[in-house]
UniProtKB/TrEMBL annotation:
A Pfam family: Ras
Main location: membrane
Gene Ontology CC: endomembrane system
A Gene Ontology molecular function term of the record: GTPase activity
PANTHER family associated with the record: RAS-RELATED PROTEIN RAB
Protein name: Uncharacterized protein
Keyword Nucleotide-binding applies: yes
Keyword line: GTP-binding, Membrane, Nucleotide-binding
Top-level taxon of the source organism: Eukaryota
Amino acid sequence: MSFNYTTDTEYDFLFKILIIGDSGVGKTTILQRFAQDYYSTEYVATIGVDFQIRTLEIDSKRSKLQIWDTAGQDRFKCVVSSFYRNAHGVIICFDLTDLESFRNVNNWLEEVKRYCPEQTPTFLIGTKSDLRIRRMVSSDMIKSYAEKNNLSYLETSSKTNENVEKCFVDFTRILVTHTNQIEMIQKKNHIQNPRVDLNAKRKSVKIEENSVCFGGNKCII
């Protein structure tokens, strides 16, 4: 699969990013803050999926992000699961003030492994970092889990806009690096395993006059 769309003058890369996590952790607010610089205290549960688009320019390359906001309720999982398959990257969100949402991160990570292509880049985000007094998930717990599962991690606040831009910029860099690595491997494999020309002329085989052949392949001489 190729992720690089250099033929389009509008962008160099197109990435489909999925945001997942428990209901109410702040998936929609972080996306609204990033895509529209908008924040609302009113909670409206996402039904099914929604998406926003924004283009970032990083290291002189334009990356168009198609970011899908998914519903966290169990009843929508059958709908959301189909969106995993073509995702180039996944962001898993949990609420720093809700220990249960952090414990459920592992379930969401299993969903990624089940439905996404192998080695799909995954980014872990702790939301509502501004609510320090109500914090229930310690930094040590998160650090240990992130290191164990090889996940990049950032704490964000959609309300104060802390690290919202940074998490998407950092993740886009990861996606670009991952894409370039895949393309290098594909080129290397193409060089090491050149195509066989099936239309090339077969070497002629001299057959005795009294020989009998069946099907053009098996001969009795």
